[in-house]
Amino acid sequence: MDDPQFDPDAWTARLFRDHERRHAYDGESGDALRSWQAAFREDLRSVLGQDVIADAGVPSLAPARTDSESLDGYERQRWTIQTETGLRLPFYLLLPDDPDPPYPTVIVAHGHGDGAKELAVGRAETDEQWRQIEADERDIAVQAVERGYAALAPDMRGMGELTNPADEERGYRTCHTMQLHAQLFGRSLVGDRVWDVTRLIDFVEDRDDLDDGRIGLTGHSGGGAVTLFAAAIDDRIDVAAPSSYFCTFEDSIASVDHCECNYLPGVLGLGEMWDVAGLVAPRPFVAVAGREDDIFPVDGVFRAFDRLTEIYEAAGALDRCELVVGPEGHRYYADGVWPFVSQHL
Q: Phi/psi at 147 (nearest 5 deg)?
């Protein structure tokens, strides 16, 4: 008798059905909830590769300002810091003209695409990039500074200035090659981007004009992934607002074709996405989604959020956890983010 045809979808479904998630939330509250968070957070840091990076030695930030421009209502500065040996992270720092610092501060994680941090500060080179700014509200750092926040907008690794032109010549995206190479060393591109965010927080802490007691983090799509994971492991982040990312791994990353840089090896051995978001509790968390988003389906968003509210209720912080669903597809929803950030930051 011939063997039955192998069904990859059925194989994946079996993994979800049978694979144990050792930090799956199971109704803990009080001290047990805090113990669950502490143990989960430590293992998540390991899966993200944070210890691998740290063990190689953490250099001084050595911040350097390379450019500055006065614009309408704010100043846009370009900086670099050393986040690990051999890598200087480029980012924009937008400072409001308000003469009364320290400013509450928002770190902005841009989404996947060639515009990178330039989109976040409202700069574009192509018609498509202008469309993303105007229709998809991707100028997130400008939105922040116009609301009185200082805004830091870095390039995510594998995009913007952190790409390798030789990859394009070979027909690859740099984020593709960086993800595969990172995995050889027990790292991942998501984890590397999270590391860069934690180093930006170090930068904030070193400055008198930035309020390190009021730090928000928001991002779109792949930047939403960075927002979720960074807030889960770093409690210096006071408000987290991922847009067009929060869902379930099963309904999104595992069922829809995404770029390799979205994948975090080993994460489902720890927990589902609602479990990861539960590490943010009791700090404020808003998930913003698009009703017509076809890569982070809204049914999965609702399912994940229902489970997340159980954790926030156990933490006594149900009023600090919200879901906002916009009417369109995969885009940034400013109206879903900023009222929540303003309320809690």
A: -100, 10
- 3-state secondary structure at position 105: strand
- Find the radius of gyration of the CA atoms of the chain: 20
What is this structure's pTM?
A: 0.96
Chain centroid offset of residue 70 CA: 28
Return the DSSP state at 97: S
**241-256: string of b/e by CB count within 10 Å (b at 16+)?**
bbbbbbbbbbbbbebe
Alpha-helical (H) ranges within 26-111 are 30-47, 50-55
DSSP code per residue over 163-206: --HHHHHHT--HHHHHHHHHHTTT--HHHHHHHHHHHHHHHHHT
Angle at alpha carbon of residue 241, lines to 239 and 247, rounded to 5°: 130
Express as a percent the part of the chain with pLDDT over 70: 99
* pLDDT confidence of residue 8: 86
Name the β-bridge partners of 69. Answer: 76
**What Å distances lie between residue 90 and 112, 238, 252, 261, CA to CA?**
17, 23, 30, 19
